[in-house]
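[Discussion] Sanity-checking designs against the backbone

I'm trying to build intuition for which residues belong where. Below is a structure token string of 369 positions. I'd appreciate it if someone posts a full sequence so I can compare it with mine line by line.
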């Protein structure tokens, strides 16, 4: 790798003040680390994945266990970059490992299995437990990296445990690991804030003075999605009509739309944003209908990616509904960079293929995730 490693990608994220303790999830993580090879934390944006792992590492730190962290980004889809960072992360916890493997990554690069075999042999000699966290793994789609990760998982030394935090399930042999009891999973349903956690967050951390029924209503409307609870709390500060605000709070709230645009939509390739723009007129869209938009393969690919995006943005019935409210707002006015007037014109000019009308439809593949 030519450019120097960015050390900040190797730091465990600093916890903000006022993190709500989640002992049931910490126990889940501890059990996973003790009993399985991989803990997969898979949930849409802003569900508290990173915070949970950082909090668990801080709360359970012991002399017998060290932890390594890597925050991935798009540039790590290059295999040399990915493996260099992964080894550098391991070296923060086990400085004696990885030097030979790193040298094998230099041109002419050795086959990845040779690099990993060298690394794994050194890791086997580490005398303590080691947890390696790969955060934001959804940015990785390079097949070569997935293949290497599969090799790594197959031959992981017993004292090394891998934690992957991601917005979408990775292309790793999850079924095989699950069948062998080697996979621990934490998903959106587990990460949702319970009414008690929502109450602690809204009243103790955010300093609101909400009655139990308002907390319950907000928890219900957000389905425990912490990012939405946080944005709702910010919007609510200084308001008198809290109950009215909560009743109207939905996916088209300005803060929610801004969050989804910044965190999810703006990070998509042009063809995906174009697909989302074209389909934003629909309330719902069936999986098979995707194909009728165009026979072009790139559109079909874009539709597949868009499906993944929906899974990164929404999950339960409420967010499914609010997503269909939020997405047109996001896609029409913001992602495309067009004004809403332009979008209105586009909307009226758009000619829909036969069978596609502006009626309620189901994006079935997104819902089934
Ligand atoms: N237990 C908690 N107590 C208080 N705030 C929390 C807690 N968990 C998450 N948050 C807050 O919710 C927001 C989203 O959390 P976090 O960044 O951990 O989500 P994420 O699932 O990792 O999102 P992304 O997919 O964008 O990486 C952050 O502002 C974080 O501070
Ligand atoms: Mg995160």
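Best answer:
Here's mine. Compare freely.
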């Amino acid at each position: 790798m030519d450019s120097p490693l960015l050390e900040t990608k190797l730091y465990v994220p600093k916890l903000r003040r006022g993190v709500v303790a989640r002992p049931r999830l910490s126990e889940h993580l501890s059990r996973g680390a003790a009993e399985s090879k991989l803990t997969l934390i898979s949930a849409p944006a802003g569900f508290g994945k990173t915070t949970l792992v950082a909090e668990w590492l801080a709360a359970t730190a012991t002399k017998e266990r060290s932890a390594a962290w890597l925050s991935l980004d798009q540039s790590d889809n290059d295999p040399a970059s990915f493996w260099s960072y992964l080894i550098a992360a391991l070296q923060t916890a086990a400085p004696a490992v990885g030097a030979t493997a790193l040298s094998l990554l230099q041109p002419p690069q050795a086959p990845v299995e040779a690099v990993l075999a060298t690394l794994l042999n050194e890791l086997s000699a580490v005398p303590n437990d080691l947890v390696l966290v790969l955060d934001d793994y959804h940015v990785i789609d390079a097949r070569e990296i997935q293949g290497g990760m599969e090799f790594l998982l197959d031959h992981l030394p017993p004292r090394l445990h891998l934690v992957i935090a991601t917005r979408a399930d990775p292309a790793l042999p999850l079924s095989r690991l699950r069948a062998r009891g080697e996979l621990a999973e934490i998903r959106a349903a587990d990460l949702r804030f319970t009414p008690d956690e929502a109450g602690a967050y809204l009243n103790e951390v955010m300093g609101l003075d909400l009655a139990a029924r308002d907390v319950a209503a907000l928890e219900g409307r957000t389905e425990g999605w912490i990012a939405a609870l946080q944005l709702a709390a910010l919007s609510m500060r200084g308001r008198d009509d809290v109950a009215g605000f909560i009743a109207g709070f939905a996916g088209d709230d300005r803060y929610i739309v801004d969050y989804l645009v910044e965190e999810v939509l703006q990070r998509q390739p042009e063809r995906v944003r174009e697909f989302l723009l074209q389909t934003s007129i629909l309330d719902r869209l069936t999986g098979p209908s995707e194909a009728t938009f165009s026979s072009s393969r790139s559109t079909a690919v874009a539709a597949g990616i868009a499906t993944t995006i929906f899974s990164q943005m929404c999950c339960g019935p409420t967010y499914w509904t609010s997503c269909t409210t939020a997405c047109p707002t996001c896609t029409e006015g913001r992602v495309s960079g067009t004004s809403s007037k332009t979008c209105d014109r586009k909307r009226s000019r758009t000619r829909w293929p036969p069978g596609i009308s502006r009626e309620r439809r189901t994006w079935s593949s997104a819902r089934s995730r």
